[in-house]
Amino acid sequence: MHMPQLVAATRTVRRFQQNRALTERVLHGLIDLARLSGSARNAQVLQYMPVLEPALCERIFHNLTWAGYLTAWSGPEPGERPPGYIICLANRDWQKGPDTELYCDVGIASQSMLLAAAEKGVFGCRIGAFKPTLHAQLQLEERHRIFLVLALGYPAEEVVLEDVGAEGDIRYWRDEERVHHVPKRSLQDVMLPPPTVF
Ligand SMILES: Cc1cc2nc3c(=O)[nH]c(=O)nc-3n(C[C@H](O)[C@H](O)[C@H](O)COP(=O)(O)O)c2cc1C
Hints:
The chain is of the alpha+beta class. It has two domains: about 5-155, NADH Oxidase; about 160-190, Single Sheet (putative fmn-dependent nitroreductase like fold), CATH 2.20.180. It is built from six helices and seven strands. It has a four-stranded antiparallel β-sheet with strand order 1-2-4-3. Strands 5-7-6 form a three-stranded mixed β-sheet, with no helix packed on it. It is globular. It binds flavin mononucleotide (FMN). The site of flavin mononucleotide has 14 residues, from strand 3.
């Protein structure tokens, strides 16, 4: 797939084929690409924990908040839950700069992973809304701080891009066929004209 198609296809997926297992090899390959991604000061403060063990996946799942705009839906049912996760965390021992740098780094790293995953037919959801209890449940050390949880798996839902309408509503929605619709602003709306230089 060429890059424009790949970027457009790399959509957030929240319902998965839970019984279709991911391999350690796939997750390790994604982490290897996160490793090569851009990093403020090249400090490379982030570390990544791959998780495939079903009982641990289940434990992680109960710490996550799904799709805030879909108020009638509390997240994927058993059978549609993610069969794998990559926990993105900062190692405070390596951190010299502010947290804002890490938020940028984790965005870049997670996009590398999601793009490469999509190329293999694997999709995911970034979860920034996780419970603080996740730290202890993953038996992490004090120096580790979770920044993002990447839920991964083969998709069990279709996602369609839409234009943001004139009313400017950016909330995603799900239709009667449970197809997920994601409105995006137009190119015209996101592009600012440069100033005239006299
Ligand atoms: C930093 C970040 C944090 C996010 N956190 C959550 C989350 O906690 N729960 C969730 O269901 N989706 C989460 N998402 C997914 C967004 O809702 C999703 O990217 C958005 O709806 C647009 O869909 P798209 O990724 O297909 O473009 C997060 C996305 C980003 C970039």
